[in-house]
Amino acid sequence: MKNEDFNWITIIGILIAIVLVVLIFRVIFFIFGFLWKIISGFFMLLWKGIALFFGFLWKIISGFFPFIFNVIKWIGLFLWGLFVKFLKWLAHAAGEGIKLGLAKIGAAIIASLTSMCSVSGTPVTNDWRLVLVDIDHPLQEEYVESIELATLENNEQVDARILDDLNGLLEDAVEDGVDLYVSSGFRTSEKQAALFERKVTMLMNTKDMTRQAAEEQVEKILGKASYDEHETGLAIDIVPQAEQDMQAMLAWLQDNAWKHGFIQRYTEWGQVITGMEPNPTHFRYVGKEAAKEMQNEQITLEEYIDPVLRATEKMIRCATEIALDDSHGYDQGERDGPDYDCSSLVYVCLKRAHVEIQWEPHTTHNEIESLEKCGFIYIDDISQACRGDILITDEHTGIYLGDLTTIEASGNENGKSHYGKTGDQTGKEIAIVTYTADKLSKRFSGILRYVGK
User: What is the pTM of this model?
Assistant: First the structure.
């Protein structure tokens, strides 16, 4: 009996021991499981933190390098532009230096570095009919040596190559009852110098001007020796014969001169480009094809031979026409005509100037990035702004006309961006605005300049 009791007690003890062991192991497993969750969670959180940190760091680095690349690109393009101007002026100055000494070279180099808006970079054409001679482009000696002259009945001379077209012009005029007289044709460099000096002396004596002031005034109507079109043999001054109506003659020339390859070289609308005062009696031979296009598009010789200048001037004319037409006002909601906001005004006028751009959506926020891909360079110094540049900030843009003047679309009649009446209700919604230098630099932070693709 005692042995049986012992066996049951033993069995029960063993079972209790097993249960205790199982409980102990479960507690141990629970503790270790809990610790594992804490440790693994900590390491997972640590890993996510490290990944987030390096991800953030990568975004900073990956965004920094394109910025550095763009800065280097802008600086490179700017320095390249200076270098090209330097070489052009140096080439010209070297030739002049043979005559005038090294001082001329130094002056030319300084001019190239300080006159960022000069049109001296206008492309040179090999077409003799389109040779450009003005205050920035002297006539080359080899061109003068190549000229063969023909003499008219009144002993004036012209380039023999234009004689047939000139005679055609004169004959057609007679048929229409207009009797033209070529009062001036080819001039030698010596004759041009004497004429220029006579005009300067007259102003100094009659207007009490300094020589510098007198020369600057005369250069607006007459070039110095080697800087005047008459030395090409392609320019003529036309006046009516005695007792003939000047206005009738000028009207006939405006309608017919281009048909024979002649253009009025110095117009009122082209004065900002040529730098010369309007002269309705001064005509220049450019050939029939070029004359027709210049007449149809109302562009100067400078624009015809320089596609970049041509595009920027077309953009300016477009913006000017919109600004002066009160049927166009400001609106951001309906901004693609007849109303515009600041960026859509620039966009539309670039399109009308036939500049190939990909700028969608056309807003100030992507203006720099978009236009840099389409032949524009960015300059962050507003003091270097030139006529035809686009001025830019993060929130606003406008077109620069030169002389601290812009064309901008700036807000509707309520001073708001939306829900105004169609058209310019105040005369200031799209306007030509003149600044002081300080206010212009505060209004805009950078420049987009078209240089062509």
Answer: 0.70
